[in-house]
Design a protein that fits this description.
The structure is a single chain. This protein is 10% helix and 44% strand. It is mainly beta. Strand 5 and strand 6 form a beta hairpin. The chain is globular. The relative contact order is 0.13. The N terminus is likely disordered.
Length: 878
């Protein structure tokens, strides 16, 4: 439904601003109006490195020539040197180290989330931040984050962009707009916008190779990048980046309690992962990541441009440990043994089941073994248990295939009207493979390697953007008028897994079915699901009077699945003195549920409060299972936000900005988890809906609009450029973020009357990320052919609640250091550095269940738990 009430103010302001434009005329001699979606080559030339405080931005404004301190909204700008002088080869980590409002965590044993890292801006979900490449919307990953306890729930249910597919060697700069901008850019821009500007060098070759490891001696990382710039005619360019990387496992866990018992009884070499049972740490990975960026002028007023990417990366990580049969004091995994005492039948197994196997022309000995030596004498065994004397741990592997292409034309008419027409298409595929697992219903005939299927996210879009400076006699400057339209479509595809990964074998009622750990997608889960949207926007910005700048933007968007919405944004900046200015914004925003969130069907394994492994099934909201348990169609999330702050620039060498923000988000999408106990009303409702008893997981989940929340905070950025005379120059960069989230309201489930979010999920949302985070970077450029970068990161304390236990973790300081030596007239460089050089770890995890499962450090740690890392990097420029 349209949201007319909340938009009356914006409509009135638009009418007031445009009504005063008497006898407007296009400016014939005015410099070109802004091209916010253009690569850097089409913008005004950036300032020299010596005056970084005045670098220009194109995000959040459609006025050419704005610097971060002149913008109406808070914007951070990060250069390649900020990103590349780090141990990590992952852009997700690189950005989180330098931007305190941007956080990421590491989730081992969490399906695809172990490989595709979610990241939060301002403590909001990953998919509430819009990601742009050269000003154009980037397609999201095919992964929908479904992780539940014990993996943390801050990111649960999100489907966002995979930052890890973007090589830092392809980046000219990163602009982080810390302000809601749905009125300017559309869905997802609730927390803000991350705009990645690609390299546009028209000449030169740069090759970099980096190798490093952790202080523990594992987690080796190696990457090599290649960047090539070529001219296209006199004023055009073609820039290509290719990066290959490899990263090895890390392991910071302790032996899983049962794995330790099994290892002591039969030898730890029989237990997966050298007696640990499972691995808590980073996955291993390798792959290729490439980007290109190009533009060619056809004449003085028209250019063709294009950019795109291709990536092929592979990862693998472990799941939970499954206990074997026959070790005293260790209960076997239910996929290998089931107590049949209730049957009381001859041969210790249900004779009707044996008869049905024989009737199919099959040998019962391939599917069942009776064990009369057990204490009860009534135990049915899966014959495949003999292949796993020390138990088994499924390994999940993922092959990520990704491409994107954006092509367009832009130019300027003689009357001053700038135009930009573009088409884009991007696709992300996640191919899964499961190793060292079984389909327990197939007995001894089960394969141990499966292909559970693959997921695809396909997005297409078309944009028409126009702008011009509108000369008038009312305001102190021309009104920068930008307007345009957008069409976009996204399609989510679920491909059927191989037959054994979802096959319901003869003994499914006893042991379960499908590939254990990550069940394959059956034909009824496979499909192709699409939705599209159409939008039109207008964006006005002008100096209303001298020293006072105002902006107003409005966007109407119509979705094929969720009706229409109108969102708006008002911005203002008052230059009180030559050195002091105040700025403020107020805006509304929205995020439409994705086809992936609406249609995903997934069965994986999680742990309960006793450390037992249970299957968790996530079902589409329109499925019989979800509807039986109270699911209703999803609606768009909506936000109302405002910010206010000041800018202090007493000199060309110093700037200070402080901004307060408050973001209220209604109808937030949550993953509703419902336990399915034998004989419960929930189980009966599913049976009544036609779900076979043998197909019921231990927990059913579905997406719902479940709660409202408010996030507020203060961001501080202080930058000082020092001149040390004969000792060179230095830049001091201090950034601090205070952030607090509160859950305002939680809906109740219509099926059972319980809250959609339990108390643990609410506590995690409010406390699992640090409230305060600071980053202090000192970059010294010496006159003696070497540079030094030193950085201090402070993470405030945090809490998480898992399985009914609350754990608190203390604040920590992490220090990074890098020294770069420049050789051969600066055409070669060698960097020796380290992240977390004092080898700091988070506090030990006190949770008894997680300790039983082998986790000794908190999975919610905002800086991971690998300890210190060192690296050496060598680069050449030609």
């Amino acid at each position: 439904m349209p949201h007319f009430n909340r938009n009356r103010l914006a409509l009135a302001v638009v009418a007031t601003l445009t009504a005063g434009l008497a006898s407007p005329a296009f400016a014939q001699e005015t410099p070109p109006a802004p091209q916010p979606d253009a690569p850097a080559a089409t913008q005004a030339a950036p300032a020299k490195e010596a005056v970084e405080l005045d670098q220009l931005v194109v995000t959040g404004t459609r006025v050419q020539g704005r610097s971060p301190t002149q913008s109406l909204s808070p914007i951070d700008v990060f250069r390649p040197a900020n990103l590349e002088r780090q141990a990590s080869a992952d852009f997700t980590d690189q950005l989180s180290v330098v931007a305190p409002s941007f956080n990421t965590q590491r989730f081992p044993i969490a399906d695809g989330t172990a490989f595709i890292r979610p990241a939060n801006l301002r403590n909001l979900p990953p998919d509430q931040t819009l990601v742009l490449i050269n000003g154009k919307r980037r397609h999201r990953s095919a992964l929908v984050n479904l992780q539940a306890e014990p993996f943390g729930t801050v990111n649960q249910g999100s489907q966002a962009v995979d930052y890890g597919l973007i090589p830092s060697a392809a980046i000219s700069r990163v602009e982080v707009l810390r302000d809601g901008s749905s009125a300017q850019y559309g869905s997802d821009a609730i927390a803000g916008v991350v705009n990645i500007i690609l390299n546009d060098n028209a000449e030169g070759v740069r090759v970099d190779t980096q190798y490093g490891s952790t202080f523990k001696g594992d987690g080796d990382k190696w990457r090599t990048s290649f960047n090539l710039g070529l001219p296209l005619t006199e004023d055009g360019f073609f820039n290509l980046t290719a990066e290959y990387f490899e990263s090895d496992f890390t392991s910071r866990g302790i032996p899983q309690a049962n794995a330790a018992l099994v290892g002591a009884a039969i030898g730890r070499e029989q237990v997966p992962f050298d007696g640990l049972g499972q691995r808590w740490g980073d996955p291993n990975g390798k792959g290729l990541r490439t980007f290109f960026n190009a533009e060619i002028p056809l004449n003085e007023s028209v250019s063709l441009y294009g950019f795109g990417s291709y990536a092929d990366t592979k990862y693998n990580s472990s799941f939970f440990y499954r206990t074997p049969v026959g070790v005293p004091g260790v209960a076997p995994r239910g996929t290998l043994m089931v107590d049949a005492n209730a049957d009381g039948l001859p041969d210790n197994v249900d004779q009707a089941l044996v008869d049905s196997i024989i009737a199919q022309g099959l040998d019962p000995n391939d599917y069942l073994t009776a064990d009369a030596t057990s204490p009860s004498g009534f135990v049915a065994l899966n014959p495949i248990y003999t292949q796993f004397p020390g138990g088994y741990t499924p390994t999940i592997a993922a092959d990520l295939m990704d491409y994107e292409g954006v092509f367009g034309a832009r130019g300027k008419f003689g009357n001053g009207l700038n135009w930009d027409l573009s088409l884009r298409q991007g696709e992300n595929r996640v191919y899964y493979k499961l190793i060292d697992s079984i389909n327990p219903s197939l007995g001894a005939l089960s394969p141990t390697t499966f292909e559970p299927g693959f997921l695809t996210q396909l997005e297409r879009g078309a944009n028409a953007d126009f702008s011009f400076p509108w000369e008038n006699s009312v305001f102190a400057s021309p009104i920068n008028v930008a307007f345009g339209a957008e069409w976009r479509e996204e399609t989510y595809k679920i491909a059927e897994g191989d037959f054994p990964s979802w096959q319901i074998g003869p003994t499914a009622a006893l042991f379960g079915f499908g590939s254990d750990g990550f069940q394959g997608d059956a034909p009824d889960a496979a499909g192709e699901f699409s939705q599209y949207s159409r939008a039109a926007y207008i964006d006005l910005e002008a100096d209303v009077v001298e020293r006072f700048t105002m902006g107003v933007a409005g966007r109407f968007e119509d979705s094929s699945s969720f009706g229409n919405t109108f969102d708006w944004k008002l911005s203002g900046r008052f230059q009180a003195t030559d050195t002091f200015a105040v700025r403020a914004t107020v805006n509304t925003g929205f995020r439409a549920p994705t086809p992936g969130q609406i249609n995903t069907l997934d069965v994986t394994t999680t742990a309960d409060s006793n450390g037992n492994l249970i299957p968790q099934g996530t079902f589409p909201v329109n499925s019989p299972a979800a509807i039986a348990l109270g699911a209703v169609p999803l609606q768009a999330e909506e936000s109302q936000a405002y910010s206010a702050g000041f800018v202090y620039t007493p000199s060309d060498n110093f700037s200070l900005t402080v901004d307060y923000y408050n973001i209220k988000v209604d109808d937030r999408i949550a993953l509703r988890n419902i336990a399915i106990a034998p004989g419960s009303a929930e189980q009966q409702a599913l049976i009544d809906a036609g779900i076979p008893l043998s197909a019921l997981p231990g927990q059913v989940s579905y997406f719902t609009n479940g709660f409202d929340s408010t996030v507020q905070g203060i961001d501080l950025v202080a930058i000082y450029k020092a001149d040390f005379g004969n000792w060179g120059t230095g830049t001091f960069d201090l950034r601090h973020s205070w952030n607090k989230q509160e859950v305002d309201h939680v809906d109740t489930n219509p099926f059972d009357g319980n809250p959609v979010l339990d108390g643990e999920r609410v506590a995690d949302l409010e406390n699992q990320l640090p409230n305060n985070r600071s980053v202090l970077t000192f970059d010294w450029r010496s006159p003696w052919s070497f540079d030094v970068t030193a950085r201090a990161n402070r993470y405030d304390g945090w809490e998480d609640v898992t399985f009914g236990e609350t754990a608190s973790f203390d604040a920590k300081w992490l220090f990074d250091l890098a020294v770069t030596f420049k050789l051969f007239d600066d055409r070669a460089h060698v960097t020796v550095g380290g992240n977390n050089i004092f080898d700091e770890y988070p506090d030990k995890q006190p949770n008894s269940v997680l300790n039983f499962l082998g986790a000794q450090y908190p999975l919610s740690s905002p800086y991971g738990f690998n300890g210190g890392e060192w690296y050496v990097k060598v680069g050449f420029e030609f």
